[in-house]
Amino acid sequence: MNEVLAIPGVCAGCPIRGRAVCSRCDVSELRELEAIRFYREYEAGQTVACRGDEMQTVSSVLSGTATMTRVMEDGRTQIVGLLFPSDFIGRLGRNRQQHDVVAVSDVTLCCFRKAPFEALVARSSHISTQLLQMSLDALDEARDWMLLLGRKTAREKVASFLLLIRRRMARSGSELRLELPLTREVMATYLGLTIETVSRQITGLRRDGLIAVEGKRVILIRDLPALMAAAGEDEVGDPLD
Amino acid sequence: MNEVLAIPGVCAGCPIRGRAVCSRCDVSELRELEAIRFYREYEAGQTVACRGDEMQTVSSVLSGTATMTRVMEDGRTQIVGLLFPSDFIGRLGRNRQQHDVVAVSDVTLCCFRKAPFEALVARSSHISTQLLQMSLDALDEARDWMLLLGRKTAREKVASFLLLIRRRMARSGSELRLELPLTREVMATYLGLTIETVSRQITGLRRDGLIAVEGKRVILIRDLPALMAAAGEDEVGDPLD
DNA sequence: CGGTCTTTTGAGTACAATCAAGGGTTGTGG
DNA sequence: CCACAACCCTTGATTGTACTCAAAAGACCG
Fold first, then answer.
1. For residue B36, which of A2, A138, B119, B198 sits 20 to 30 Å off, Cα-Cα?
2. pLDDT tens column, B165-197
């Protein structure tokens, strides 16, 4: 993990400006944030935070992908959230980390010291309003995932995962080419499956012509409507307003 | 569904005063809320809200128990949240209901007209702060449930459910006597299981002496440590601060 | 006392987990 | 440049848990 000097005025060129927790802040608030802000970088595989640890900072993901996990005593593990750029890490109102956070690709965080950040939140409705909206979105997403974990078949789970990645990583030109930032193991841990089952389902989707595979980490969607049907999704295109 | 006249000044004697979304409000805010507030009652089994419907009101549960569900096209159903007294129903920032809400016992709601409520939230940090904390708690709970749905066995799921009810319904004198407000079907739908499997697991826990059953809806916990072990919980007694 | 609804129990099945082995890719060192 | 190890992914064979289908036993009601 490296600490990087904060660059004055860098918010203007911030890649997640407009989506992050600070997106509604005015200039004076941004200036306050800059005073308590610093960057941190993690390499793929490094641990960002451990459940139970004292929380000294909160942060926004600037680049890369991280996971939030819950682990049982005997080692069974479930990923309870994926963290993409603009997602917020931290829990106001608590002093300890609630989840283990691990970088699955190289990750850069924009960190804020927790105490002054919370003080600013108490004063600024801009931050608390944005944080509330982001939390509500996260809650909706978690509940969608509960439906997947509780009721979907392995094939539906994998298809749903590919569509999730498509939604969250919408970029890289064509929307039908997905560069998975994740290993099969991460996919399995997120989907409540084993690695072997994920692998078999990907093979199955490929054999049925819904997707094609380039190397190991690139998925091409060959038949989007069929993939959506295979995911058992009721309303992929039109999220409720 | 019956509408009941709001009783002036009733907030003073409100059963969820201190826990609900309005718990941090001052007198003038409460007065504003009273002007846009009314009660609604539902009988067990009645639908409170349907996914996709326009949201005219938001509300707090005053008494009773309700469920939030997600349904797939083919009918597979997952309960994504239980709503107990003081829980908030509604989604600021959206115009439509995100979930189906059904009363599983007789339910009384304290409803607020949505537009003026949102206007008040925009002005009052008391409400938005409380709403943020409640949302973050709901998010933690949803993530715990993801671990249950994705990784726990049927027996662990049922044991975890009983402990959840014990936590949420802490009252009725002895903490070892649980009056389930829910049918086996609701339990199954919440746990990602079938009715039959829930029934078998309850029988199993009874046979192993961890619980006893009185009639159909009352569970007596006979061996709490063993039940906690059977739930595979790492930290039942000490939630992270 | 029948009727409906909920719960329990039983028998057979299916889906994903487990156990096990074999490819493929990448990186390191001789 | 090649050999070898490490890692990740795929495939196969077998097992086990929870689902499905079916029926009976309790509740609760008029």
1. A138
2. 988 876 654 578 888 878 899 999 999 999 999
User: What pLDDT does A235 receive?
Assistant: 58
Please check the confidence at residue B6 and state whether its pLDDT lies above 50.
no
- A202 Cβ within 7 A of any nucleic strand D atom: yes
Alpha helices, DSSP H only, in A178-233?
184-191, 195-207, 224-230
Alpha-carbon gap, residue A186 to B59, rounded angstroms: 38
Residue A110 (CA) to nucleotide C24 (C1'), in angstroms, measures 38
More confident residue, B19 or B2: B19
Q: Give the integer Cα–Cα distance in Å for A162 and A211.
A: 10
Q: What angle do CA B127, B130, B136 make, to 5 degrees?
A: 135
Residue A89 CB contacts under 8 Å (≥ 6 apart), including other chains: A48, A49, A58, A59, A60, A61, A66, A83, A101, A109
Distance B62 CA to C2 C1' (A): 40
Radius of gyration of chain A (CA): 19
Q: Chain B: residue nearest A54 by CA?
A: B241
- Count the neighbouring beta carbons within 10 Å of the beta carbon of residue B148: 25
pTM exceeds 0.70, yes or no:
yes
DSSP code of residue B96: B
Sites in chain A below the pLDDT cut of 70:
1-10, 170-174, 234-238
